[in-house]
Amino acid sequence: MLKIGVLASGRGSNFQAIIDEIEAGKIPAKIEILIVDNPNAYAIERAKKHGIPYLFINPKDFQSKEAFYEKIRDELLSKDVELVILAGFMRIVKKPLLDAFPNRIMNIHPALLPSFPGLHGQKQAVDYGVRISGCTVHFVDEGVDSGPIIIQAAVPVHPDDTEDSLSERILKLEHKIFPEAIRLFAEGRLKVEGRKVKILNYKLPDKYFTNPEIGQ
């Protein structure tokens, strides 16, 4: 059974989606620890409800970002974590953690990468006037939302969309494809070759592509 560590900064809705899929028996995994950098993160309440150990690590307690990530790394390794999940973790991951978990840190971004990386991907999409947006699960590297792409899902962008309305539509698919990517990893079906992630014996379900009904 895959041992997972989760990093979060806020409400943790993707964290909850992953918990639900694990508890439903759809992902052969166990969440060993939740680590937060915000003592008021609602993700903590989700962890408490489901009996998941959690830990607040204050970045202000460390003299450097590297030292902060060394502490996170050590906590994850102490739990024998095999896969690290960024569930709304609002920081750029640094080398100590990346080196400890190469191609074993996953993030989800609310845009179709490589378009609109960084903060407010939904607003960037609306402002740019694209017709289709979506979300991307990717492995994390030293760049900003630049690691190898695992799964993407698409949604339409309506003429009257705002950042909030598009975010809501995208979030529904985030809750589907993030657990799906974790399941594939747990089953040993992801193979990274350079920039590409090969998914062994798999066809992405049609429900992860553009669906005009979503959010209407």
UniProtKB/TrEMBL annotation:
Alphabetical list of Gene3D superfamilies matching this protein: Formyl transferase, N-terminal domain
Site residues, Raises pKa of active site His: 145
NCBIfam families: PurN
Domain Formyl transferase N-terminal: start-end pairs: 3-182
Family: Belongs to the GART family.
Catalytic activity: N(1)-(5-phospho-beta-D-ribosyl)glycinamide + (6R)-10-formyltetrahydrofolate = N(2)-formyl-N(1)-(5-phospho-beta-D-ribosyl)glycinamide + (6S)-5,6,7,8-tetrahydrofolate + H(+)
One Pfam family of this chain: Formyl_trans_N
Gene Ontology CC entries for this record: cytoplasm; cytosol
Xref: HAMAP family: PurN
Residues at the catalytic site: 109 (proton donor)
Group of enzyme by EC: transferase
Protein role: Catalyzes the transfer of a formyl group from 10-formyltetrahydrofolate to 5-phospho-ribosyl-glycinamide (GAR), producing 5-phospho-ribosyl-N-formylglycinamide (FGAR) and tetrahydrofolate.
Primary gene name: purN
Alphabetical UniProt keywords: Purine biosynthesis, Transferase
UniProt keyword annotation of Transport present: no
Protein name according to UniProt: Phosphoribosylglycinamide formyltransferase
Any one GO MF annotation of this record: phosphoribosylglycinamide formyltransferase activity
EC number: 2.1.2.2
Amino-acid positions noted as binding (6R)-10-formyltetrahydrofolate in the UniProt annotation, renumbered to this chain: 65, 90-93, 107
Binding positions (N(1)-(5-phospho-beta-D-ribosyl)glycinamide): 12-14
Single Gene Ontology BP annotation: 'de novo' IMP biosynthetic process
Metabolic or biological pathway: Purine metabolism; IMP biosynthesis via de novo pathway; N(2)-formyl-N(1)-(5-phospho-D-ribosyl)glycinamide from N(1)-(5-phospho-D-ribosyl)glycinamide (10-formyl THF route): step 1/1
Keyword Cell membrane in annotation: no
